[in-house]
Amino acid sequence: METIRISTAQNVDIDYEVAGLGERIAARLIDLAGFAILYIVAVILMLVASISRSEMLIVVLLVLFGLIFLFYDLVCETFMDGQTFGKKVMKIKVISLDGGQPSFGQYLMRWVFRIVDFGFFFGWGVVALIAVAISKNHQRVGDMLAKTTLIKTVPRTQIDNVAFISSLPEDYQPTFKEAFFLNDRDVELIYEVLTGFYQTGNPQLIYAMAGKVKEHINPAMPAGMNELQFLETILKDYSYLTANTAY
């Protein structure tokens, strides 16, 4: 499993799983299916236009379809946070190798080199398939030149499925009621940090994340509780408090 380290907005480094060849192909097929539907609609409209002898409408439809097909990836990735509709369905997105949001120049570079990766028009994408299959970060040629890749946007394990959260006793009492003011993304990030610590044993992740959470919610720390116990307790408290909204 290939991963890439991303520096989050909270200045915590998290390893994200790089999207594989299967996710990329599926996302592309979804996008192409959308184009197929759009093409059918355009053909029907052109037939109607031909019956009514509206040559101008036919030209407009052809130009409009061509522009949408040509600029679809560039426009979507620029304005949809690195995703097309197919990528959104597959829960993958474009990310810069330095961990930041890609610039327009990087999106443009990826788009320009689609000609190399996929050929003209629909193409077979042989170059892209080979490049993604053999490159370290599953990059096509456009990604290599733009210094981007695709990552999976969904955590490997959903928070609600974590064993020590799902098994909370009925009489559980939260230690940090301030956890209620965190959001789902904050909690996902805490879980990712804990997962990274369990796998690597690197305590710096725990110290950094605990510090950020404390700054955010300013909790009263019980005596003797360390940073690891603090983060684990925050996850439990958040799960309990959000499940019991009457609190």
Low-confidence runs: none
Return the average pLDDT rounded to an integer. Answer: 83
- Across the major sheet, the strand order is 1-2
- Strand % is 5-15%
Helical amount among residues, as a percent range? 55-70%
| Sequence of secondary-structure elements | EEHHHEHHHHEHHHH
Structural class: mainly alpha
Termini separation comes to 41 Å
Q: Mind telling me the C-alpha Rg?
A: 24 Å
Q: Which labels suit this protein?
A:
two-stranded antiparallel sheet, mainly alpha, 247 residues, elongated, two-stranded antiparallel ribbon, 4 strands
Please provide a written account of the structure.
- This protein is mainly alpha-helical and 247 residues long.
- The protein has two domains: 150 residues, no CATH class; 85 residues, no CATH class.
- The protein has eleven helices and four strands.
- Strands 1-2 form a two-stranded antiparallel sheet.
- Helix 9 packs antiparallel against helix 11.
- The chain is elongated and about 80 Å long.
Report a brief summary of the structure:
This protein is mainly alpha-helical and 247 residues long.
Topology overview:
Elements: E1 3-7, E2 13-17, H1 21-51, H2 55-79, H3 85-90, E3 92-96, H4 104-112, H5 114-118, H6 126-134, H7 141-146, E4 148-152, H8 163-166, H9 184-200, H10 203-217, H11 227-243
Antiparallel strand pairs: 1-2, 3-4
